[in-house]
Amino acid sequence: QSALTQPPSASGSPGQSVTISCTGTSSDVGGYNYVSWYQQHPGKAPKLMIYEVSKRPSGVPDRFSGSKSGNTASLTVSGLQAEDEADYYCSSYAGSNNFDVVFGGGTKLTVL
Amino acid sequence: QVQLVQSGAEVKKPGASVKVSCKASGYTFTSYDINWVRQATGQGLEWMGWMNPNSGNTGYAQKFQGRVTMTRNTSISTAYMELSSLRSEDTAVYYCARMSGPNWFDPWGQGTLVTVSS
Q: Are the beta carbons of B103 and A38 separated by less than 8 Å?
């Protein structure tokens, strides 16, 4: 199972919106509504931000939203704030016969 | 609150083994799989495997087959990950994480730095 493809970097100014993509195949991203996104600040553990493509865990601001079209999932951060600067990783389910978990390579989000 | 607390940093010599612990609290330990993920400095997340604390069943990424062993002690709600035949490329932060759905992890432990150096 190959890793999911993310752009290495993304950026935006405070208050703007930025979208990070995560491209897989019909066997993972395109085949199931089980895409998740994680935020990781330097020196910290990853934090779940989105699960099941577009659901937010309790406590995650509604500025964070997720979507999917075909084999590509997206994370959108609206109203960018300085604290949103972090690395973001996507992950996708790939079927009950495949217990392996794959992550995207990560995207460094810079708030200008 | 739901929490995973990992053991402290380790320094090991090449060829040695390391065993990292992950103590769960705030939920029924046997109800959720525990996964292990590692991250080398400046690199992305790399999944290592999973363990069902109820049955003890495990599944490992092919890359680590034969070198990793995941176990648990249900009496103290603690999961363990042991990696053997360490080499310098195994230097990384190792995280445990609760699998809270078909593919999402929440929460994560704070991470354990394992340094392999002669």
A: no
Q: How far apart are CA B9 and CA B24, in angstroms?
A: 18
Percentage, residues of chain B above pLDDT 70: 100
pLDDT in tens, A49-62: 999 999 999 999 99
The 10s digit of each residue's pLDDT in B89-112 is: 999 999 999 999 888 999 999 999
How many percent of chain A have pLDDT more than 90?
85
Residues of B with CB under 8 A from a CB of A: 35, 37, 44-47, 50, 59, 61-62, 95, 97, 100-111
| Residues of B in Cβ contact (< 8 Å) with A32 | 102
CA distance A21 to A15: 20
Sort out which chain A residues have CB atoms less than 8 A from B52's CB and list them: none
Chain-chain contact of A99 with B107 (C-beta, under 8 angstroms): no
Does A74 score more than 70 pLDDT?
yes
For A40, other C-beta atoms within 10 Å of its C-beta total: 20
Q: Tell me the pLDDT band of A97, cut-offs 50, 70 and 90.
A: low
Phi-psi sector, B85: left (phi>0), alpha (psi -120 to 50), beta: left
A45 touches chain B (CB under 8 A): yes
